[in-house]
Amino acid sequence: MMYRNFKTQAELDAQYNPIELGLDVPAYEKYYGINSDMVRQELPCQLNVPFGPTLAEHLDVFPAAQPDAPILVYIHGGYWFLGSSKDSSFVAKGLVEANVTVVVINYALCPKVTIDEIVRQSRSAIAWTYRHAESFGGNPHRIHVCGHSAGGHLTAMVMATDWENDYGLPNNIIKGGCVISGVFDLMPLPYTWLMPKIQLSWDQVLRNSPIYHIPEKAGSLIVAYGTEESSEFQRQSQEFFTAWKAKGLVGEYLPQLGKNHFTALDGFLDTDSPLCTAILRQIG
């Protein structure tokens, strides 16, 4: 066996490759791209704000109308080798309408950098947001984090950060998180089509699999996925949620009926959607 009950790469690719799953990836990219363009035109925003020393380390801020607003930091997906912050501006639509400031972060991509470095950049963006929140009207004591797919993985990793010892910040700076269709156990990925693109070593797999690094203390976590996703993506979320709860941590399970890996995100466009409603309830 390669991994669990999978004997061949083809079997694993059928679980982890959206094209093999029959999804029209370009159509979804176009849909969210159009909506992201519209959101940047309609909402006040500060674009390409640097948070680190490299050109890829920048973020986009969509401030709420009212001051001292809670903040949601969003981390985009793309299997760590695709996408940018500009592809995900659409996530600000429903949340800004509900008086939540949204920060969408950008990061360097594999194989130019490793997943280790992407995790570091994501953590750096959270630290920057905490330190600079008041400059864009946000409340540094009400930071939440959310991400989809690879961004779900990165969200889980930043929630496991030792903020006090590594950054000199309070360990509770993240008050809650939402992981959407994430990958929490990287063990199967070296056997898949992704390997040439993300070039994982086994020590990186162990170091960057959130299911092996669930913190002793953390804010509440929403684990969401689409019920039309592959069985492996569903299992990844289900087992991560179980492990999270086994630590005695607060969590909410949010299967989204009839959603696939990409439509699991369209709730961000509607403040009253189950996804936005759950996030807003968590933010309080």
Automatic annotation (TrEMBL):
Q: Name one Pfam family in it.
A: BD-FAE
Which SUPFAM superfamilies does the entry link to?
alpha/beta-Hydrolases
* UniProt domain BD-FAE-like: residue ranges: 65-240
InterPro entries, sorted: AB_hydrolase_fold, BD-FAE-like_dom, Carboxylesterase_B_AS, GDXG_lipolytic_enzyme
Query: Which molecular-function annotation in GO is an example for this chain?
Result: hydrolase activity
Instruction: Cite the entry's keywords alphabetically.
Output: Hydrolase
Give the protein name, as stated in the record: Alpha/beta hydrolase
Which organism was this protein described from? Iningainema tapete BLCC-T55
